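step 4 of 6: structure.
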Amino acid sequence: TQLLEQSPQFLSIQEGENLTVYCNSSSVFSSLQWYRQEPGEGPVLLVTVVTGGEVKKLKRLTFQFGDARKDSSLHITAAQPGDTGLYLCAVSGAGSYQLTFGKGTKLSVIP
Amino acid sequence: KAGVTQTPRYLIKTRGQQVTLSCSPISGHRSVSWYQQTPGQGLQFLFEYFSETQRNKGNFPGRFSGRQFSNSRSEMNVSTLELGDSALYLCASSLVLGGSRTEAFFGQGTRLTVV
């Protein structure tokens, strides 16, 4: 059983469309991170959410942490081809430095 | 400043061989973690080193090992390679401040293909 379930697994949209991807779990987390990984590169941290109900914005990306701190969403407004990549959510283990990742949402934005 | 450097970028090995991958963290970062990424399993934690000591290990067989040197550079070794070991191996480095780990910066990875 995956600790973090991400959906959808794949998403292909036209430039200018909006989209939301999800990261769900039955466990409660003290914080959750979102990464983007482009082909041939390692993941790059986009944001860390800490407080239940927290909303963070990064340009056209809006991240939300669920009130119960069990889930999170990433909304992209007016997607651009540069948004193409693998979006990963991750949590740290209690008392350890280990990151546990979801399997990711592979996003393709078609010009 | 220079990022996390992993060498080599690509590697092809034969089943049964062993391989050593290298990771140079960002200057000043003393925590180095290794991850395996495959299409089926995604990113999975292998182990983490801090101050030359393994602090945590993921659920991988003993064929996977690592070490960290006094300059924080790290190597991981996989012995008796299997076809299933084909993957992208990623290294991440972090600062450790007051016992807390800061943001993890990942290298570009080493793409290992076992034939």
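step 5 of 6: annotate
 - Chain B has a mean pLDDT of 93.
 - The longest strand of chain B covers residues 42-50.
step 6 of 6: archive
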